[in-house]
């Protein structure tokens, strides 16, 4: 079975979500202007509403993106290339019309590019995505299964970090020098991860993973009309955003800067 949207909507293959997100990302990086970014963002929100994606879950997963976009916009506002009227200047900080416009365009563009990625991982199971990558995109099974195994192990990092902290506290080495303790604990976590990855690779090879060029899959990964419609919608959003930007004279190809 493929991943669902968790709200009663029809099931969509994770590969279609991935291709749609890549289409939007590639189309939106061609220009740095607020018109194309805002157009794409509005159309994406409409698409998510049509797909009945829960807004609360989307905001919960994407809250960090709002912070990242705002931080990026603030940095560009203060240190972007000045142009037009200068509103404030102090040492290396210059706030001008050009930096404000570029900051707004960057803020909207980060949200427009990141929103589909949040939608992609909102309810997609890694195993279902791996099934799609192997059956729909025909990627090598060795690469797909290795990546899936690695993703499955990411959840153990948090548990390892807690256990390392408990062990250091039991030995009495976690009471002082927090920065040094964090650096040492991070190195120990890296060593654990490398060891676990080596053991996992050995175990998978012992079980015959990657021994043959062709492989069968336990679950089918259908790719039909719904998936094609989603990808076509992504192309339509990019086309509408670029058309609106060119029509308003705001198109600013990134290679010309």
UniProtKB/TrEMBL annotation:
It is found in: Membrane. Keywords: Cell membrane, Membrane, Transmembrane, Transmembrane helix. The lineage of its organism: Bacteria, Bacillati, Actinomycetota, Actinomycetes, Mycobacteriales. Signal peptide: none annotated. It comes from Mycolicibacterium rufum. This is Energy-coupling factor transporter transmembrane protein EcfT. InterPro entries: ABC/ECF_trnsptr_transmembrane, ECF_transporter_component. The chain crosses the membrane at residues 20-51, 63-80, 100-122, 228-247. It is a multi-pass membrane protein. It comes from the Bacteria. It holds the Pfam family CbiQ.
């Amino acid at each position: 079975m493929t991943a669902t949207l968790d709200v009663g909507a029809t099931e969509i293959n994770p590969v279609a979500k991935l291709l749609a997100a890549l289409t939007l990302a590639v189309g939106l990086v061609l220009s740095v202007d607020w018109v194309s970014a805002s157009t794409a963002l509005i159309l994406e929100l409409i698409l998510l509403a049509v797909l009945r994606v829960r807004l609360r879950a989307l905001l919960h997963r994407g809250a960090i993106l709002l912070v990242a976009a705002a931080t990026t916009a603030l940095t560009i506002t203060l240190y972007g290339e000045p142009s037009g009227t200068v509103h404030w200047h102090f040492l290396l900080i210059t706030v001008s019309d050009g930096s404000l416009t570029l900051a707004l365009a960057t803020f909207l563009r980060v949200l427009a590019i990141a929103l589909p990625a949040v939608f992609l991982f909102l309810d997609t199971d890694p195993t279902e995505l791996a099934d799609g990558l192997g059956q729909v995109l025909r990627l090598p099974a060795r690469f797909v299964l290795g990546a899936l195994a690695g993703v499955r192990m990411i959840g153990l990092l948090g548990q390892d970090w807690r256990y390392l902290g408990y062990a250091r506290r039991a030995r009495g080495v976690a009471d002082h020098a927090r920065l040094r303790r964090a650096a040492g604990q991070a190195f120990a976590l890296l060593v654990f991860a490398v060891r676990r990855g080596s053991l996992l690779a050995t175990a998978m090879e012992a079980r015959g993973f990657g021994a043959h060029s062709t492989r069968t899959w336990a679950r089918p990964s259908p790719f039909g009309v719904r998936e094609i419609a989603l990808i076509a919608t992504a192309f339509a959003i990019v086309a509408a955003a670029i058309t609106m930007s060119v029509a308003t004279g705001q198109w600013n190809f990134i290679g010309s800067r």
